[in-house]
Amino acid sequence: MSAKITLGHGSGGRLTQRLIEDVFMPHLKSAALDEADDAARVSLGSGQLVATTDAFTVRPLFFPGGDIGKLAVCGTVNDLVVCGAVPKCLTAAFIIEEGFETDTLALIAENFARECRNARVEVVAADTKVVERGKGDGVFITVAGIGSLQAGADLGTGRIAEGDAVIVSGDIGDHGAAILLARGELNIQADIASDCASLHDLVLPLLAQFPGAVRFMRDATRGGAATVLNEIASKSGHRVLLEEERIPVKPQVEGLCEMLGLSPWYLANEGTIVLIVDKQAAPAVLRRLRSHQLGRNAAVIGEILEAAQAPAGVYLQTPSRGRRILDALVSDQLPRIC
Amino acid sequence: MSAKITLGHGSGGRLTQRLIEDVFMPHLKSAALDEADDAARVSLGSGQLVATTDAFTVRPLFFPGGDIGKLAVCGTVNDLVVCGAVPKCLTAAFIIEEGFETDTLALIAENFARECRNARVEVVAADTKVVERGKGDGVFITVAGIGSLQAGADLGTGRIAEGDAVIVSGDIGDHGAAILLARGELNIQADIASDCASLHDLVLPLLAQFPGAVRFMRDATRGGAATVLNEIASKSGHRVLLEEERIPVKPQVEGLCEMLGLSPWYLANEGTIVLIVDKQAAPAVLRRLRSHQLGRNAAVIGEILEAAQAPAGVYLQTPSRGRRILDALVSDQLPRIC
After folding, report:
1. CB–CB of A89 and B129 under 8 A?
2. SS (H, E, C) B10-36
C-alpha cells in the first residue's frame, strides 16, 4: 500500500481491492461486508432485505446512452438484481460544485427520476451539499438501494459447479468505450453508446422461470468482464475457461480497443452482466435472455472447470487454440467511468 | 432560482430549500420525500423501516470533538433516532481525492467504525471512488442509514399542540463554532469542541418511558436551532415562543459569536436536538434528559402557541421584554460544516 491514494485505487481492479482490504476492512469488517458482494443481505424484522451503495463520479456527466443521473439509478438497480433482489427504494445524495449550472442539475435530476420510474423504485430520502469551486467536479451522486430478496433466489459463488455455463448478457465494453470517446481527448469519431440500462426486467424473471439454474450473477462494471470473472474464479476456487471467439464485442468497440491498445475485457459495462448457469438450463436461459431487448446479444462464452489440472483463474482459449491467463485489472485503463 | 449553484445553496437554509423545491422535487416527488423529514418511513415486507441519507463534506476533516468519520455516523444515527427509529445498518461511500494520505484515510475509517460500534449499527455495504487531484477535497463520505421504527414512536409536526414545551437537549452552536475555529483562519484561540455524538441512548428510551409525550424531534444541524424551529412553526402552523435567557449557550461560543457578529441560533449542532414535548410531561422528560451525560445541559426554552394573534413563526422574547422574529437561515453563515 502506497502512502498516498492514486487514481488506480479507484479502478475497481487489484489496487481497489487492496485499498479496501488494507484500509477499510480492518475497521469495517462485518458479516455482510465480508461477503464483498455488490450488495449485502440484511435481516430486519421478518423480511430479508438487500442493501447496496455506490458513489457516481463519472466524467463527463453526459455521454451517448446516458448521463450521471440515469447511470446512478441503473448502477444501483443492477447491483440489487444480480443479488436476486427486487429493487424497492433508493436514497440519493448530491455533492454539487459551486458555480454548477442549475439547469444542468435539473436535467440530471429529471433523468435520475425517469430511470427511477422505469425501474419502479421510489426515492425515499435525499440530501444536497455544495462544495467550493475547485473542490468538486460538477456533481457527484451517491445512491443507496434497498431491495427485497425475490423468493427462490439462491445465488452465490459457493453454488458454482464444474460444467456450469458462463454467459454474458450482451456486448462487452460499450460503456467504457463510450466514456472514453465522450471525453473528446482522442479526436476519434465512432458510433458507440453506453449500454447503461436497468436490468430488473431482464434478470429477475429468470430466477422465477429457472429456479436454481442461475448460480451467480454480477454486473461487469469497473474492471470489466475480466475482473468479475477473476472474482468468480477466485471465490469459487474454480477455473473459468472462455472462448475468445464467442465473446460479443461490437466491431467499433473492438476497433477502438485495437487502436488504443486496450482490451474490451477490462472496459466497464453498465447494462451487461455475467451469469453462471447450470449447463442443462443454459440453452433455455440464453433464449430467454435473447428474447429481451436488453439481452438480444447474450452469449455463452465459456464454462466452469475444476481447478485440478491448473490453478483457479480465468483462461482464455484463443482462435489459434492457444490458451492464456486473463488476469484481473490491476490499475485502471480509465478513471471515473462510473 | 439563480442560474448557478452558490455555496448558499448548501447552507441548509432557505436557499437550500428553494434548490430542493425548484430543482429536485418536481422530478423526485414521492410520498416519502414530500414529508421532507430527515428520514422517511418505508414499508417493506411486514416491517416499518426508516431510511435516511447524508453526504458529509465537512472542512477541515478533523476538528476538536470529532472528524468526518465519526460525524458521518453520528449525523446518520441522529437522523434516524429523531424519527423514532432504532438504527440498524449503514451503507458508506467514500469519494477520495487523488494524493490523499492513506494513513489519514485509515484513521477516518477507524473513527467511522468506532462510532458504528458505539451506536450499534452495522456497515452492510460500502464503496470507494477516487477523483483526480483538484476535483475533490480530501474525502467526502456519503452514508445511508436504515432503522426500524420503535414501537410506540408516534412523532410528527401534526401532533404538536398549543402549550407544548420546546426543549433543547444541550448547549447550542458548539459544532459550528468548533468548525469555524478549526479552520484556523481567524487567529482566535478558544476552548470549543464539537458536540458531535450519536444520541440513540439519550433519545430512544424517552419514547418508551413517556409514550405519546414527545410530539416531534429534530437534530439541529445545518441552519442551527433557529432553522429547525422555523420548520416546526411552518409545518405545524403554530407560533414558537422562545425565551432568550433560557437558551443554553457556552460562554466561549457566545463570546465568539459576539466577536464575529454571528448568532448561536444559526450555528450547526451535531449532538443537540430540539424536542417538542407535552407540557405535563416536560419536567419529567427534562429530568430524564439531564440524567444522561449527553443531555446534561438540556433546557426548556419556550412553548408552542396558537397562531391566532400573530402568524405562525418563531418569536424570541428578549430579557428586556422585547419580542422579535427569529427567522430561518437564508444563506449560510458557514459553508461545509457537515
Report:
1. no
2. HCCCHHHHHHHHHHHHHHHCCHHHHCC
Based on the number of CB atoms within 10 Å of its own CB, is B137 exposed (0-12), middle (13-18) or buried (19 or more)? buried
A131-183 per-position pLDDT tens digit: 999 999 999 999 999 999 998 788 999 999 999 999 999 999 999 999 999 99
| Contacts B123 to A, Cβ<8 Å | 28, 30, 32-33
Architecture per CATH, domain B35-149, reads as: 2-Layer Sandwich (3.30)
Pair B218, B82: CB distance under 8 Å? yes
Nearest to A301 by CA among A223, A232, A209: A232
> Which of A1, A7, A28 has the highest number of chain B CBs within 10 A, making it the mutation to test binding with B?
A28
Interchain pair A89, B51: CB under 8 A: yes
Q: Is the per-residue pLDDT at A1 higher than 50?
A: no
Q: How far apart are CA A80 and CA A84, in angstroms?
A: 7
| Closest to B335 (Cα-Cα) out of A108, A55, A97, A92 | A97
Query: Cβ contacts (< 8 Å) between A335 and chain B: which residues?
Result: 130-132
Q: Outline which parts of chain A fall under CATH 3.30.1330.10.
A: 35-149
Cβ atoms of B182 and B60 within 8 Å: the answer is: yes
Domain span(s) for CATH 3.90.650.10 in chain A: 157-325
pTM higher than 0.90: yes
Query: Is B23's CB within 8 Å of A109's CB?
Result: yes
Q: Which residue has the cell 483538484?
A: B134
* Closest to B88 (Cα-Cα) out of B142, B40, B146: B146
Q: Please state the rounded mean pLDDT for residues A331-335.
A: 67
Per cent of chain A over pLDDT 70 is 96
Nearest CA in chain A to B332: A130
Count helices and strands in chain A by DSSP H and E runs: 10, 14
Measured distance between the N- and C-terminal CA atoms of chain B, rounded to whole angstroms: 24
Backbone angles phi, psi at B70, to 5 degrees: -60, -45
Mean pLDDT of chain B: 92
Interface test with B, best of A16, A129, A334 (most B CBs within 10 A): A129
Looking at CATH, the fold of the domain delimited by A157-325 is given as Phosphoribosyl-aminoimidazole Synthetase; Chain A, domain 2 (3.90.650)
Q: Give the model confidence (pLDDT) of A52-61 as tens digits.
A: 999 999 999 9
**How does DSSP assign B132-189, residue by residue?**
-TTSS-SEEEEEEEEEEEPTT----GGG--TTPEEEESS-SSHHHHHHHHHTT-S---
Q: Which helix (H) or strand (E) holds B285?
A: helix B282-290
Whole-number pLDDT of residue B35: 63
Instruction: Give B31-83 pLDDT, tens digit per residue.
Output: 667 665 667 777 776 668 899 999 999 999 999 999 999 999 999 999 999 99
